[in-house]
Amino acid sequence: xxxxxxxxxxxxxxxxxxxxxxxxxxxxxxxxxxxxxxxxxxxxxxxxxxxxxxxxxxxxxxxxxxxxxxxxxxxxxxxxxxxxxxxxxxxxxxxxxxxxxxxxxxxxxxxxxxxxxxxxxxxxxxxxxxxxxxxxxxxxxxxxxxxxxxxxxxxxxxxxxxxxxxxxxxxxxxxxxxxxxxxxxxxxxxxxxxxxxxxxxxxxxxxxxxxxxxxxxxxxxxxxxxxxxxxxxxxxxxxxxxxxxxxxxxxxxxxxxxxxxxxxxxxxxxxxxxxxxxxxxxxxxxxxxxxxxxxxxxxxxxxxxxxxxxxxxxxxxxxxxxxxxxxxxxxxxxxxxxxxxxxxxxxxxxxxxxxxxxx
Amino acid sequence: xxxxxxxxxxxxxxxxxxxxxxxxxxxxxxxxxxxxxxxxxxxxxxxxxxxxxxxxxxxxxxxxxxxxxxxxxxxxxxxxxxxxxxxxxxxxxxxxxxxxxxxxxxxxxxxxxxxxxxxxxxxxxxxxxxxxxxxxxxxxxxxxxxxxxxxxxxxxxxxxxxxxxxxxxxxxxxxxxxxxxxxxxxxxxxxxxxxxxxxxxxxxxxxxxxxxxxxxxxxxxxxxxxxxxxxxxxxxxxxxxxxxxxxxxxxxxxxxxxxxxxxxxxxxxxxxxxxxxxxxxxxxxxxxxxxxxxxxxxxxxxxxxxxxxxxxxxxxxxxxxxxxxxxxxxxxxxxxxxxxxxxxxxxxxxxxxxxxxxx
Lengths: 359, 359
Known about the structure:
With about 350 residues, chain A is an alpha/beta fold.
């Protein structure tokens, strides 16, 4: 089977998991689901041999501020990346894809690239591996494969992918849809044939290079120059800041996927979560008999469906239901689980106020 | 009018207001209702001239561990106590009354004594002053006057006083009742003629001395000896520990009031609260338009009937209702307002565990 090289995207700060995630302590570096960070889980999830896959050491792309922490965590997890590409600034996922493609071209790498976020959770890696194995055949046939998550409810926080006619183990993509409203999301669920867009892509780098050249030449050219002019030291590749700053910022979905004729989707039911909010994390955590998920120094009494997480002071929670209580050394968040998207209102307030050091 | 000397009882630690109140930081020393502590409010509540009262400097009774803090707070509030009686250990309120009576006798003080807790809130001091003025006439007539709080709901956390026949501006006490169950409390409220026992007493010290001698001679004798043998320095009176340790521990209600034929009650509607729990404090705090009471560094978003109090880190609360969130530097409590008595379950757990330093 054609070898697959994961391209792990370590950007973003995950403000929706404030106060645990911070600018300087982004979500993918946090041990949210046990002893290992989401990044460490992502980097070790796929192994050669699973579903017949041939998995190569990953390409890891991150920002300068996090590069050391990312490298440390990978080493701790026993992962030696093929390269650590360091962006001088964030330019969204199209630039990441372009950088991976340019690196691949320069190295003469013959692997398919599996672009994936570093901060998602997948409960059933076997199902994921199997889907990737199916995807290899499609990518070998010059398609750009997305892995669509089978929806279990009308979520309004994700983009949706409508599948078209069958294509190998997957389907052609009929269209990508932006985050829908609740009514539309319910209609999608009832209609069937829609998947959530999990932002995971598998492709031959030459195919992606051609599509980027056609649909996003500004991004492709600027990023290729930044890779060519990069400063290299060991496996660290610092992209050239001047060239990179010329790259327009766009998600790969918009820059390429919505425009290309080569998009395919493989729906997969793999226990996926983007861990995008406290309630979303709560869903995937183990619970006690009261339905509570508790970690850190705490007393939880007469509570139901409550998440308590302290990395700071002793935290006692009594008689509440459906709430997340998140405690760090310098901030406390108490938020109803059904309001967990509203943590951004807190962030906005802190941005405007005197408490910016808490961001 | 016969002068009245307040006897302010500063005992107890108020574990029900954990984590703000601690063994070393008892409830009456905390500024729970604004800039001043409950003790400071208590010491300055009654002033000469109110309802024709003649109020003398108070006698203040406290424990050795708190004596300095109590003295400092009184000085800060501009109060110079007649004496600061320091108990070597807590022996409940009968011993406090006995100590006040013995001190009064030794000093040849001719004032009535107004025994009152230091950690209650009274929203309408004028109504209280008027009741005390009415009480003076009854105390002058050798009655021991209690001030009964007119109940506004069937509270099960207080003792009740059933009034008998009219006596001056008040009533003879028919009987004292222990904390009732919910059904009994509702019956009392429906029946009328019951007041809550607020633990406030007005009496001639000679009358109380005689009643203590009759009904609790062991307490009276031991405490009188402790006052006689006390070590005095300025207005500080350290009761003799050996004598004091011989005094049985009992509340004045049980030791005297339930037995004496001289008990009278004056019902008064004075906006009283014992501030005995977080929900009880919440009731008397000022609220914003959402019904929330907020203090300290905080963001409160889309909440109703919620109390947020931080003396420590920034605390953000989003989308919850009917909850108290109490944050200090080393502990966090999140508790449903209807469960606020259950803070004792937290305390019990801490007592058994490794976190005793948080008590």
